[in-house]
Each structure stands twice: as C-alpha cells, then as structure tokens.
Specification:
This protein is mainly beta. It is built from 4 helices and 15 strands. It is globular and about 50 Å long. It starts with 14 loop residues before the first strand and ends with a strand.
C-alpha cells in the first residue's frame, strides 16, 4: 500500500524534549559477562540500588567509575543498552577499541565484582513528524543504535549504516521495525571514506531524521556531507563525536 499522507513541512520539525533526572550514584554487581563479538563485551549489572533507574532515550549516558590502575578512580560515559525493571538488570556494552580504564575493567570483569555508576543526568527524547530514520556510526555508537532499533514501534522504517573492523563484528537486533542494516568494514576507525561511499547510495527522503555518532573527525566529515551535498535540514540531524582519537575521555558536540 502506498503511503499518501502529506510529507512533513518546514513547520513540522522533529520534536526534541529534554528531560532531567535526579542524579544519584548506584553500587551494582556484575551478574553476567558476554563476548558479543571480538570487539564488543556485554556486562549485565544488577542490585537493589537499580530501583528507580530511569533512561528515556537510546542516546542517554551514564558514568561508570572504574580503577585507573594507579590506586584512583576514573569516570567514563557509556550508553545504558537495556534496562529491565522486572528482572532488575542493566546491560552495558563496551566497545574494545582502545585500552582505556573502562575497557580494561570490562575485559577483567567477573561475576560478583562491584562497580559504581551515576546518572543518567538527563534524556533527549526525539519524536514528532518523523517518517524515516537513518542511523550512522561506528562500534562505539552500536549500543545506542542497537537500543534505538529495538525500541522503535513496529513497522518504523529505519536504515542503519555502521562501520566495524570486520564481518565478525556485525550484530543482529531483535526488532519489529522495518530495518535495513548496512555494514562497512574498515581497519582504521578514523577512515571516513568507506562510510561516505556507502552513504552516497542511500536515499534520504523528506521526513528522514538522521542520527550520527562516531570518532569526532569522522562525524565532522559526514555531517558536512549531509548538510551540504545531501541538503539534510539542520533540524533533522543530530551528530556527536563519541570519542576523539588520541585524547582520553573526550567527546565533541555539534550544534545544529
């Protein structure tokens, strides 16, 4: 059946709602660990202090407090991959791409270990007159992309374009959305050309919301392509540099 409903106009911009949460720290226990792919580890956390945990958006971030290897503690941002209030469990996926303190902790984590988390501080909920979704990122964005795909309403048209080191790092998602999953294999996470080459073959019709997150220089280049050559309206794009090559615990925000 052909969709004959009107296309969104310039006045029908996506609705972005920012919701603040009470900020608190929680001490949790590792309930399970799983090697999803060669470059992704899933940690399941549980504990009584998870009661009241709230995460309204797949773009949310929590702080994880991990040992710095020198007797101190460092904080790192991670996406709440899935929270199940019924079972009292929180899933966190760790991309193994740089041997930072959080990656080392995830590699060494064992059932029964304890860890503290904080947040999320708030949620950015995207809704409104969106007809299609295009999700672009690298493995560090996969937890957010995967959660978003799984939470879409049945039948939602969504295309994902994700760069990973190789075919063994591709993931499958349980979803009722109408998903087209595209994968790019690259050696260097700073390579933008493989993503751009694939992106040029993807149709971006009116009413498509584009969500983009990767290494900062990659995000910057793809964002410029989307706004320039593809003429995606700024209000229909959200872009983030989830990490910055050579700089620990750094991100880059792109205001649209």
């Amino acid at each position: 059946m052909t969709d004959t409903s009107p296309l969104p106009s310039d006045l029908d911009l996506p609705r972005i709602e920012r919701v603040r949460h009470d900020l608190r720290r929680r001490r949790l226990t590792v309930a399970a660990t799983e090697r999803l792919t060669p470059h992704m580890i899933r940690i399941t956390l549980s504990g009584a202090e998870l009661e009241g945990f709230t995460s309204l958006s797949p773009a949310d971030h929590i702080k994880i407090f991990v040992p710095d290897g020198q007797g101190g503690t460092q904080m790192r941002d991670y996406t709440p991959r899935r929270y199940d209030a019924a079972t009292g469990t929180l899933l966190i996926d760790f991309a193994v791409h740089e041997a930072g303190p959080a990656t080392r902790w995830a590699l060494d984590a064992r059932v029964g270990d304890e860890v503290e988390i904080g947040g999320p501080r708030g949620s950015m909920v995207i809704g409104g007159a969106i007809r299609n979704w295009l999700l672009i990122g690298d493995e560090t964005a996969l937890p957010s992309i995967g959660r978003r795909i799984e939470e879409f309403a049945p039948g939602t048209p969504v295309t994902s374009l994700v760069a990973v080191p190789g075919p063994e790092d591709e993931q499958r998602f349980e979803t009722e959305a109408r998903l087209t999953a595209l994968w790019v294999h690259r050696r260097d996470p700073r390579e933008v050309r493989p993503l751009l080459d694939h992106l040029k073959g993807i149709d971006i019709p009116a009413g498509t919301f584009v969500w983009l997150a990767a290494e900062a220089s990659v995000t910057r280049a793809i964002r410029a392509h989307l706004l320039g050559e593809r003429q995606v309206p700024p209000g229909w794009l959200r872009a983030s540099g989830y990490w910055v090559h050579g700089t620990a615990d750094a991100t880059e925000k792109f205001e649209d």
